[in-house]
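Example record for the data management plan.
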Amino acid sequence: MIIDSAEIAGLSVLQLLHENTASATMFGIDRLDTEKPVTVLFYNMGGMDTEVSIVKYSAITDPI
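Corresponding structural encoding:
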């Protein structure tokens, strides 16, 4: 249904992303404090189910 709605709007759907994954990705991109590792719990209580994701962020210390 989401893909059909996007196509009606003229959008090309490449991939669907889970809500908690999208939230965790944006949090990681927007993080300002990258000095120390941090663990974050993302909680999504919907109408039919509850989803929880625990994500650990850390800075890359060795350049490639």
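Summary line stored alongside the record: The first strand starts at residue 38 and ends at 45.
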